Amino acid sequence: MGKNSVRGEGTARGRVEHAGELGWDESLYGNDTAGGAAQGRKPAGDGGSAGSGGSGGPAAPGGSGTSAGSGAPSAASSGSGGAGDPASGSGHRRGGSRRRGKRKHRVLRWTAITLAVLILGTATAGYLYYQHLNNNIRKGDRSAGGSDAKKAAPNAQGQTPLNILLIGSDSRNSDENVALGGAKNDRGGDPHADVQMLLHVSADRKNASVVSIPRDTRVSMPPCKDPEKKKDYPATNAIINEALGRGGAGCVLDTWEKLTGIYIDHWMMVDFAGVVAISDAVGGADVCVKQNIDDHPTKLQKGGSHLHLTAGKHNVKGEQALQWLRTRHAFGSDIGRSQAQHMYMNSVIRNLKDQDAFSDTGRLMDIAETATKSLQVSSELGTVKKLFDLGMELKNIPMDRINMLTMPRLPDPKDPNAHVVPDTAKADALWAMLRDDKPLDGKSDDKNDGKPASEAPKGPAAEAAGSLAVSVVNGTGTNGRAPVKGRASEVVSALKAKGFTRAATGSSDPTATSEVDYPRAAGAQGKTNAESVAAALGLPPGAVKPSDVKTLTLVVGGDWRTGASYPKQDAKATDPLKDTETVNGADKGACMEVYAPYRF
Description:
600 residues, alpha/beta, 5-stranded mixed beta sheet, single chain
């Protein structure tokens, strides 16, 4: 299982390794040209030998056949006088030269034809295999119709963050998945998205964050359209792993966007069999348990992953890797399972980097063959090149700048023993960090040219408050809550009291976190003006953002539902990293605690 089926096809792999026109092997033409040159040199020598025999005289001692064949007279030929007519000897030499020239041209022509056939054959084989990989990929719509988040504005260099939703399906709709996942009675039923992670890669590609949402989290879901069932699902409040059965991966993406306000570029989904195959292809992952573990069914808890390991470090791959990723009860809860999954992902990335797999063409082709068969992706990501480019996005990110955690949560009031809900204060702060492209480790890549903040260049002074037109938008309808009626008018009144007499209400636009947007074209002056609006109402400097708006726009978000000024935030109550399981990519010593009933 997980083996590359193409490896048994004889020459297929060899052809792909030379598919230089597709970028797999830059040495294609250089290697073949060198070979052709070698072939071309040999016939030249043969022609020279034949020419020396036709000259009527032996070659000079120590001389080459080519030299003699060139018509340069040797001592023996100059003294023979046998021809009696120098002209006839000269004509004979010219005839030999013509014959040698024809032979050379024939050889060069056949060499060129051979090279053309080889190059064309190699290119065709590479192209066909490239198309084979593309045809492997199963694609689906990015959204199920409920996507409404805004894409982040580019930074000063024109770069934007990259957000990808990673989904693990528990589908039993194949013999292989039933064999791996059990529960054969569930075959044919709606799949669940038991693993859901958001991979956020910063705009400058210098750090990355991964956030998991537990599968048993209760959330508000938007209306979704299922393209396969041709069925419309209404908005609802339900457990997040049910979103996959309400419109496929596109509905899961829409649900995340509704919850977080983060624009998600793509989704990627894998099932049980795909996990096993990909794990084999990448060489597994190094994991660790503090105690012996046996995740088995008990009287109180049915099911289990059947993971069986002794205490310490292990490399898990194939079916054992799937068992690790599915283990829930032995790690205490779904939260523990997310932490174990983060450990696994970090290890895979570390191992690929250590093995230099990102620059190993043969290794990449093996992984590509498996990945394209195992993954289902959103349609705009559905080519080998785009998947390859995606892998390269992570290549140069240092492991200590990759951080993974699970969303802050609280017990679900409707079912506190089985379900959770987002801890609104901390979760909203976490989503705001990702929307604002802030790294979870708190480190900044902005060196400010080596100068302290006090010496940073200052922008222009703000224009008079009374001269600034400010549009106030009611964005309080987030996280499943209805918008506060008249909220924009209340804040307009507060602004006018502060001297912003040209403030007026705008259309509603649900936004989790309040912000002040200024026209990107306004530059430094627009930013300064926006900062003056934010300061007047107590919003933090981070709330000021460049945007495509036409005028200064204050969005009153779901975090500011009452009051004339922005509520002061309790740093501890809103710290998304406090008391949250965080796994750093450079931590090779991470080890999972095993719940006592599952130790042996």
